[in-house]
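Appendix B, record 7
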Amino acid sequence: MARRYSYDLRIKLFKAVDDGLSIVKACKIFNYKS
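Structure tokens (predicted):
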């Protein structure tokens, strides 16, 4: 149970980091164009 919870937490963290990087990339592209 605890192991499964940490696994879910890790996936959520990974997705959050991935989303954050996507936002950073979008901001860089946007700033580059403008």
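Remarks on this record: The helical segments are 2-33. The chain has one domain: 1-33.
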